[in-house]
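Pilot study result, target chain (681 residues):
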Amino acid sequence: KMAAAAGVAAAAGLWSEVNRCGQNGDFARALKSVNKILQINKDDVTALQCKVVCLIQNGNFKEALSVINTHTKVLTSDIIAFEKAYCEYRLNRIESALKTIQSASEQTDKLKELYGQVLYRLERYDDCLAAYRDLIRNSQDEYEEERKTNLSAVVAAQSTWEKVVPEDLGLRESTYELCYNSACALIGQGKLNEAMKKLQKAEELCRQSLSEDSDVTEEDIEAELAIIHGQMAYIMQLQGRTEDALQLYNQIIKLKPTDVGLLAVIANNIITINKDQNVFDSKKKVKLTNAEGVEHKLSKKQLQAIEFNKALLAMYTNQADQCRKLSASLQSQSPEHLLPVLIQAAQLCREKQHAKAVALLQDFADQHPANAAEIKLTMAQLKIAQGSVTKACMILRSIEELQHKPGMVSALVTMYSHEEDIDSAIEVFTQAIQWYQQFQARTNYVCCVFQPKSPVHLSLIREAANFKLKHGRKKEAISDLEELWKQNPKDVHTLAQLISAYSLVDPEKAKVLSKHLPSSDTMSLKVDVDALENSHGATYVRKKAGKLTGDNQQKEQGQGEVKKKKKKKKGKLPKNYDPKVTPDPERWLPMRERSYYRGRKKGKKKDQVGKGTQGSATTGSSELDASRTASSPPTSPRPGSAAAVSATSNVIPPRHQKPAGAPATKKKQQQKKKKGAKGGW
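Predicted structure:
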């Protein structure tokens, strides 16, 4: 009895210690006291519950879950449902957490809050929205703002990933989190400018909110703003401002944020900007997308986009095996998705295996008829790249939902024309016209994009007629034009075309039809010629005539138009021009064609160089110098010497004189180029 009394007293003391530590937030010490209590009574339900709570508060979720699972008889689901579900949620066992919550006998407020979080992680946004609405409606406590933030996050996710137009929840955007979520919803709708304004407001609110706390540093504020700046950069990228986006992305990476999800998204976006350029930078950035825990931070679509880009990067870096492995893995995860197959086909094309690429695409089109149109368009492109235009046309004509579209008809006609297969081109026109005639009969009226007031089949008939006329099929063209004219007898343009066509085949018929043309009086158009000539883009603009007065007016009336004589400009003369000297009559001829040209004198400069000390002259050099003879005019003076020329000397000025044998001006230019030369003569 005394031992039992001592045990009870010890347990009471320990419980007091647990209570005191719990209030102080010292859960490590509280856990030690709880373990001592469990040594006294290992099946104490309250002690076990406290142990689980202490472990959760210390972040030991695995150990806490282990305690719950090993004491299932004592810790029933009614007692510990929330703690068990929370541990599973934190350990990213989301499906298990959902089962635990749903199996609980009573849905407490705590379980409902956790249920909303679990649904969000499972991307069941409709159910999540309903859960948070119910919580906000039936709860009144200090956590109302957090619930509204979570509600706005669900709406933003619906807008971004499911392309659902978000409803106005009437939430007052008083916090930066609410502003940020509102901006994300706007991005999902494509309202990028509005989203940018919301993000700027969110940044301002974030700075205001955090700057009020004296313990928060500027680095902490920048770290908190990283996600807002990341979304701003994403908007810039969508707007085509890739340089600005790239700069902002790199600034965020330099901050080294702890959010691995944010880093992975930014790295992926940089890779998409780099594309097939700067692949070494992309290979560095792709490591950030492989960080631990990324898969739990991002949505399925984000993770899928990252995997696609990894496969494309492997292709651009010529890692064929890696590319095939990644694309095959993606295809197994999403068998109906187009991108993995397209990446595999692109890789085969890089390896010059076009036939295999086409076969791969054909298999996918057969297995997934819903996506067959896009696949067949790719197949046609590959056939065109191989030069098989006719086969490409056959593939395009097999796409039932597109074969009668005006754009497809135009493409097929162009391709057949390129192959000079006019019959097939006309057949395309005929089939399209028949299809639209039947379609018009069912829907009464279909409008053409190019001619809003004309049914599509009539537009196609006109195009077919023009095509047939161009390729010499006059009789077939006449048949089409007659049908057009019957549809609208007042169409003068069609009638004119019809008369023109008949004039080549049956001139008499053309004359008969020409009687239906309106008279010239009815066709006269009231055109302001002056306004037309002065309009923008006119090739000829008539000059406005000035007012004529006095003698000019009389001349105008008496003599008519008189051409103004242009004054001849005096030609420019050389500075050293001497009128007494007769100009060289051959001065306009090229140098080689002049009578006195004797060719270039090679080796002259070499012969003039002396072999003595610098500055010494070779004996007899002046006698051999042709520039000093009486028949040759003086050359330019050497650098450093004076050129004394008397006023009475018979010097022939430039452009009049016959050329000297030695091109002295070239020497000057060469010496000017030698900037580092020392001294001189």
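One observation from the pilot: Confidence is low (pLDDT under 50) at residues 444-454, 614-681. A full batch analysis is planned for the follow-on phase.
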